[in-house]
Amino acid sequence: MKKNGASVVITHQILEGKQDAYEEWLGKIDPLCRQSPGHIDSQIIRPIPDLTYTYTVIIRFDSIGNLKNWMSSKQRKELIAEVRPLLARDDQYSINSGLDFLFSNPGDIKTPVRWKQYLITWSAIYPLVLMIPFVILPLLRMVNIPKNIFFDTLIITGIVVVLMVYIIMPRYTRLIRPWLFK
Length: 182
What we know:
Blueprint: E1 6-13, H1 19-35, E2 39-45, E3 54-61, H2 64-71, H3 74-83, E4 92-97, H4 114-142, H5 149-175, H6 177-180
Antiparallel strand pairs: 1-3, 1-4, 2-3
């Protein structure tokens, strides 16, 4: 089986007041997921307290097959049934290979050809890599954080990735969708 890697992005909107119960549930499902064949890593993006109630969970596996096996496993189905009373909306997720989630086309399983993904990603990252250091580095120095190439790069790349995944790429791909999915 060819292993290109695969990701699932899961969103759970939690009912108000149910966050503690949901966190407890995460403590059950996360170790089981980690034991699943092909599991690489997972990230949990928690809601902003008293402002949002949506958890975003990103899980990566070494292959789409292993990911689909986990998503359709009996263990996961039982745990999803257990958490449903805590959710404002049902379990929602999208499965993608590699970085395809940046180029998702709602309602369509087709992803753009790789060379188009490359050009779009490059054209979005280039201006960010030029501009972000000019803004962030002076701010870091203003708050008396000493110059350190490793820390500076960590902060800059973190900001670039957040902007790419949450702000730039969703809008950019929507704007050029006719060309991208042609």
